[in-house]
């Protein structure tokens, strides 16, 4: 009945979980204090020991991150650009993984008790009656005997293993929120149609192509007897979905730092975002081993419902925050304002999860809404505070994930590396990506006035980096043989794409003659390299124009202090309500085109994102072939900004009423201006 | 063998723990996927349900905090000052507690399994053999049958209960770090002797007096038969220790906002800090039910060892951060710098815990060291970033603790309210505080040139608020009857002190004729209300003078960019090393008295602490009797700042060499200046 073997589960860790769990033990120990003194002291010692061990484990990660930061600095300082910081974090993680696995030898603590009982399933909680007292035990997971003992330091390695859900639920949200918060919205909306096509149609294509190729590979493996367990068709599809989720973070970081051409950026970025959203939903769908059409349709319906629900929830929280910050004078107290902003954004995630939607999607749209509306209401200090806070959280979470990724290559106990499967997977993601980009670009180009050039397509093909998202999805479930093999393979794919594709982005861009060092907010028409055809492309995005007008005339004035007063945009019958809802600042701003606020976040972010102002001004000295263009860019940036802004706001100005801003409380609003579409300049926006 | 009863432990929650744990369940569910599909689906549903529930619970707290923030704003906006924000957070917590307890009725989920086994103790982990598969279960705690079912919604209430250790290990560290980081060091060091006396001697006195009074009370209760369980003498002492820990946070917040007289502030603040340190160690000591002298001496030795170890660890991490930020050019990348700063500060806590010291103490001294040295090396952006980040963390943690405090008055399942015990406790803390303050002040006044006036003593007596620290200590262990009674009583004490003492601070201060609205960095000699005797008081603090000289001549130049170059303060033989260690900025700053950096943090903090600049400038309009003084203060503040600074730096200037700052690399340092003590102005510092 009693087998001596002290164990800790492989799902025991968490961002703070190792410590928490051990503290829990602590508390538990104290709860059991009435036992005999001797037993108590021993257990207390053990709990303390375990607590120390957990602190030490977390310390390893902190030191890893610290080292990464120092090396990032060194790289930036010396202008090494062949390896991105996420790649660095991974390498450090790998080293520590190797040391933990092969370098450290700890004696295994052997005392554990095995009970045998006749149950047909494992309950989540059991009560154990120990000589009259009842103790509660909670399920930690199934233990597999055969594997845990092949590896030395199994105990140690299990201790540095974190709960997989931590990645999905704690580390991803700040990353996704920050991505939404710092999204270049203008370009995003301009290319909305293409982005949605790439995201929805492209992902599904890519997912199925990858899945089918993998299924072929698996069948082949089975035939030649290289497969050690079950691998169903749905597993293949799931694998396809996982590895189709290109990483918004890594690509964003690289492209942002290189100041790559705006449209490519928008296309990639948008695609990735919605991809994220799709795959974020994936693991919650049914994952049966059979495949039929009606089930697919049904789950598509569920997916759409969940997606739109999450979207609505994220937008709603954003709107609520905007209203609160608008109608209270919270801006006098930046600390309170930032705290509120942070809490409301976090509550989006919780709210979505509590309602059964996906928190990650909600957080993404919440970030976009917050940046679009709430940001305008914040005080100057809160603006910088909130940006810096989310930037820091994003940075820490991202680097934590990547260094953990490196570590887990050695510390994970159930790796299944199948060379043929790995080769098949690399082939499959290549084909899947190609099936996503090229045919779709061809179709889109039929409708687009501003064609997606073939060099753009090659870069989009090449920079399909897989990162934090893919990792979080694949580590979420590593129970079966299939999932373990998928996890190991995914890890290799992430390493490869981050190191090779990430490191190769700069050469690739120059090879494809894509402009590097382009200010993301600079209008294309003012750049000197003959890409003027792009200045008219937004004519095609009519839903954007429609949305923009509605947003500018009604939503912005309602939710923020900027935009034209509602009194001038709403029909006269709504006068009293409009006066209530319009802030006095809006009247003052009426003549001043206060939309600068919104644009500021764009301008600021491009330099603040990774806060290396020196790098962005050092663009001349960059060892890329784009030096001369970068120089031109710097010139253009300083001289053309006002022009750019005027061009951009050309349409806005027409919508604005011409009433006297010095008299904010005119009892009757002026008649609504002539429809904006009548003016040729309107097309610019 | 199988008893139907689904349970969740009362120690299951955590700052993120509810979610994490449930996610864990999630992961567990997926691990067990190979079971039959049907069981799977049911368990998955359940896990999902539980996950939603946990998200909803966390959401309650977020909404609570949001409401608190909005109300704080309203109070600040309308200038209500009778209730502090922490008091507000508590009230909201109370409301939610009442609603959860009496308003919501959820059906109880009944399915749990009880195993009986013959063990003489409860192991931390057990393996359960369920029809051939092994599942791991971990101990959560002892379950008491009788109590959990008297209360409706027991399940619900247990879900909103957090792991007590969370407060101590996750929420306290940021609060304590922030307190250390924003400590007004000059006044702290000036009154170091008195502070240490109050802290060490005073706390021990207070602890024993309270403990003895409580023991008398307990004996009385036992005689009249009102005691429902054991209550040992050590329990009384522990209670004394807990309630002797006055709150640095609450008092700090109130005094800081009111800008109370500098010395009172320093005395109270310093006292509280070291109190915190003492009691932070307490729960780790032996807690036997017997009492003997040798054990006391031994644990005193252990305490001193742990205290100095934690101190050294905190200081060491701070020094390391200072060195890293000095010798790298990390300041070009504020994000990296802030991230490093944050991680290093956090690692202090983990390092101390991993080595068996107390993280809280280490974090306090780390904060002080960081503010004293590292802060000088940071870039301007990182300075504001780090301050804002820690301020936000502090604010959120503090308000979370206080709203949880309110909630737990109703949600905690094992309250033991004994009216006589409560009355005894209030009497005991009053006597304990009196025994701490008055005799010690009398003794200190014998040695102090600048006497601690009796009105100061009364205010110190009155404002012994108990807050987050006391709560975290008392909730840490609520297993026995004695501890439960202590917890319930402590809760009432905290409520009383925060509402009555906290709310009554303003009237009390005016009653005692203590100046309100004093700039904490303003030298006393320039204020117009006849308190000039204080301007000479620092003569008595000779250890501070000694320390200051050493710090200014060697430590500051070594660790930061400020201070005189080491080449001028070290003997000539150390020339090469000195040149290596001195940054080029130090030479440039040599003539400029770069210590302003250090003072800036002081000046900034007094207004930044709660970021209500408007309140501090609104001091004229405050409904306190000190209006005229506040007016005078405002006058003095603007006109006398340069004078103040000059006075303060008078001593500094003498230490500085008179070499030419335009020639930073003089090969031979000038001879060391004449001993600073020879100059009368030196006494000012």
UniProtKB/TrEMBL annotation, chains A, B:
Record domain Cation/H+ exchanger transmembrane: where: 68-509
Pfam short name (any one): Na_H_Exchanger
Molecular function per GO: potassium:proton antiporter activity; sodium:proton antiporter activity
One cellular-component annotation, GO: recycling endosome membrane
Membrane topology: Multi-pass membrane protein
Signal peptide: 1-32
Compartments where located: Cell membrane; Recycling endosome membrane
Skewed-composition ranges (Low complexity): 656-666
Composition skew (Pro residues), residue ranges: 667-678
Entry-linked InterPro entries: Cation/H_exchanger_CPA1, Cation/H_exchanger_TM, NaH_exchanger, NHE-6/7/9
Family: Belongs to the monovalent cation:proton antiporter 1 (CPA1) transporter (TC 2.A.36) family.
Identification of the protein by name: Sodium/hydrogen exchanger
